[in-house]
Design goal:
By secondary structure, the chain is an alpha/beta fold. The chain has two domains: about 50 residues, Multidrug-efflux Transporter Regulator, Chain: A, Domain 2, CATH 1.10.1660.10; about 280 residues, 3-Layer(aba) Sandwich (Rossmann fold), CATH 3.40.50.300. The protein has 14 helices and ten strands. The strands form two sheets. A seven-stranded mixed beta sheet has the order 6-7-5-8-4-9-10, with helices on both faces. A three-stranded antiparallel beta sheet has the order 1-3-2. Strand 9, helix 11 and strand 10 form a beta-alpha-beta unit. The longest helix has 26 residues. Bound molecules: adenosine-5'-triphosphate (ATP) and magnesium ion. The site of adenosine-5'-triphosphate has 20 residues, from helix 5 and helix 13. Adenosine-5'-triphosphate (ATP) binds next to helix 5 and helix 13. InterPro entries: AAA_dom (IPR025669), DNA-bd_dom_put_sf (IPR009061), DNA_Partitioning_ATPase (IPR050678), P-loop_NTPase (IPR027417), Plasmid_partition_RepA (IPR017818). This is Chromosome partitioning protein.
């Protein structure tokens, strides 16, 4: 056995590599985003602003010429550029003269309950984080008041939103603080604003794994209470402040995922349509059903408003994928969302610079690549928005 393989040395190597990687990533981030320059949302062309608001570009132009609403920035080419804040102000203005209430501000009205959407599947890499991030951002841009929660200790959703899980959260600040068994914090203390209007974030990091370790201990001490309701109870403290909560779950069926499942009113299961993924999904579904039975046995109401499968990284030209998609649609019918999330280099490239496609400029990609990807994302997210509206009895 070489010296390298003794346990002590392996440990040292791993530790050294971990430190090296953390330092490198930190300095890379410092050069990309200097500490004083926090992340910001790009500006939108008048065409993009009109599309997201659901009005004609000419109407937006008229509002501008009449001096109504916010004053957009003017580009060197004399084009109007709207910030996400401008778009939100326009929403408020347009809603005042809307034909039907909610045409521009689609959020809750009296009697509507908070929508809590859990994005899950224990298969790693099935597109949970990408789906959750784009859903949360699109809903916020559409005028919903959104809270995104990173429940995954890997913290990819957190990093996508410009918070560094290992540096910015040294003194806590994840949902763990609000669901821990000893001295939980108020959830209001850990919610952060983001650079996108209407979008708040509860970041995650490794500390979340404490919940997985402490729950069995609390259960054996009799201190856990209804442990699976801890996320739901924490969210109840801020119920009135949001329309939709989007929870990015870790790729396993642990106590964190169970708590998210118990809090959720809607469940989105991401599926990459490949044989191995679909096979593991069968186990995921059975285990989830078993867990829900256990929770229901303790008297909890486990009914949900809806659950849907979302096809992710779908390649329409891939014949084996198409067979699996056809098979899933035949088996599960309208439980599979109509719109799939297409596989696109625009989405993965944006991810490399810790951005969603809503954050990158259209000029960063060839037009057809960008347009195809954004149309697919919008179709998915708008279909979910319709489910939300239906739950509130509006469609
Ligand atoms: N539609 C897409 N087109 C291209 N690449 C994608 C797409 N969706 C996701 N990806 C890429 O696939 C990888 C896995 O996606 P993602 O992180 O969203 O999965 P996940 O289910 O959250 O993974 P984990 O289980 O590790 O949390 C990422 O590198 C992401 O950029
Ligand atoms: Mg993820």
């Amino acid at each position: 056995m070489s010296k390298f393989e003794t346990q002590e040395d392996l440990n040292a190597v791993i530790r050294q590599h971990s430190e090296l990687l953390a330092t490198q990533l930190h300095s890379q981030r410092e050069s990309l985003f200097p500490p004083d320059a926090s992340k910001s949302m790009r500006k939108f062309t008048s065409g993009e602003a009109a599309a997201v608001l659901g009005v004609n570009d000419s109407y937006l132009r008229k509002l501008h010429l009449d001096g109504k609403g916010p004053s957009p920035a003017i580009s060197s080419g004399n084009r109007r550029l709207y910030s996400a804040e401008d778009i939100q102000s326009l929403r408020v203005l347009l809603e005042k003269t809307a034909r039907r209430p909610g045409d521009y501000l689609p959020g809750r009205r009296e009697g509507d309950h908070l929508q809590i959407i859990g994005v899950m599947n224990f298969k790693g890499g099935s597109g949970k984080t990408t789906s959750a991030a784009h859903l949360a951002q699109r809903l916020a841009l559409k005028g919903y008041r959104v809270l995104a929660i990173d429940l995954d200790p890997q913290a990819s959703l957190t990093a996508l939103h410009g918070v560094q899980p290992e540096f910015d959260l040294m003194d806590g600040g994840t949902l763990y603080d609000a669901i821990r068994y000893d001295n939980p914090e108020s959830i209001t203390k850990i919610i952060r604003k983001t650079y996108i209007p209407n979008l708040d974030l509860i970041p995650g990091n490794l500390e979340l794994t404490e919940f997985e370790h402490e729950t069995p201990r609390a259960l054996s001490n009799g201190n856990a209470g209804l442990f699976f309701f801890r996320v739901k109870e924490a969210l109840a403290q801020v119920d009135e402040q949001y329309d939709v909560v989007v929870i990015d779950c870790p790729p396993q069926l642990g106590f964190l995922t169970m708590s998210a499942l118990s809090a959720a009113t809607g469940v989105l299961v991401t599926i990459h349509p490949e044989m191995l993924d679909v096979m593991s999904m069968s186990q995921f579904l059975r285990m989830t059903a078993d867990l829900m039975d256990v929770i229901a046995d303790s008297g909890a109401d486990m009914s949900h408003d809806w659950m849907r499968y979302l096809l992710t990284r779908y390649e329409p030209t891939d014949a084996p994928q198409n067979r699996i998609v056809a098979f899933l649609r035949t088996m599960y019918g309208d439980k599979v969302l109509n719109a799939p999330m297409l596989k696109s280099t625009a989405i993965s490239d944006a991810g490399l610079t810790k951005q969603t496609l809503y954050e990158v400029d259209r000029s960063a990609f060839t037009r057809t690549t960008y347009d195809r990807a954004i149309e697919s994302l919008n179709a998915v997210n708008d279909e979910i928005s319709q489910l939300i509206q239906k739950t509130w009895g509006r469609m």
